[in-house]
Write a structure and sequence with these properties.
The protein has 309 residues and is of the alpha/beta class. It has 13 helices and eleven strands. The two termini are 55 Å apart. It comes from Helopsaltes ochotensis (Middendorff's grasshopper-warbler).
Amino acid sequence: VHQSKMDFFCKLGYGKQDICKVLENLGQEALEDDVLKELIRMGSKPQALENQAQPSQLKLVARGSCSTTLGLKWLGEDGSDSSDSLRPIVIDGSNVAMSHGNKEVFSCWGIQLAVDWFRERGHTYIKVFVPLWRKEPPRQDSPIADQHILEELEKQSVLVYTPSRKVKGKRVVCYDDRYIVKVAYEHDGVIVSNDHYRDLQNENPEWKWFIEQRLLMYSFVSNRFMPPDDPLGRHGPTLSNFLSKKPVLPEKKWQPCPYGKKCTYGNKCKFYHPERQHQAQLSVADELRAKTKVPLALGKEEERRQCSP
């Protein structure tokens, strides 16, 4: 009897020491209900409940929230490394600088604005590719503004110069777009540029898919770097999900039915009916058929009873 009771309460999750104390106090012939009451009175809890009572280290975040504070929590603000949840960023420095300079001046301040925008979001891996000849003094046909920013970004290991040299007075420049796409592809990151890289898409089919899915376009609005909220179109992911390795899907929000309880569409209604949560959503015709079948079935049973001896 003692062993059977021990096994019974151990399956419930109680500790053997607590069970032995209660059986010594109440006796071996005590009822299971009395033992259970005594265990509860002593404050003993099953192991499963104790594990649930312990505070969880993970923080739940409401899905579909547009607030920046909640959005930053699942992006790594809760103490974890943000680099684990955010994608690496590879910036086309020439494209960004010329866009900020209205395609007339190579504006290095535009590169700084883009880098600062991604840093504020928590991205740790940011690389900017610029041709090496941009370190040379500016000329009339290729003016450069705020050239000292390139030196500062190079010291921070953010800026990378693509190689170039002069052969018999002619400049030989390596294709910087190839560096940009290759590094972004190897690190599974995001390309920041308004260029479509069509020549590289035709060159490599794997790069074609990657450029189509990971190209982040942008705009400059009065010295403000602004990428779109829907990088892949209206039906694509949001900007936060696009830049994150672990996207959070928003919950589907149902629009309430404008007719309310007077709606006659039944289960064919595409709107939300709060009064039908615990009811089978049948159409009006199906409900009438179900109601008529019940009295018919009852009448047939009564006839069978009357006919039977």
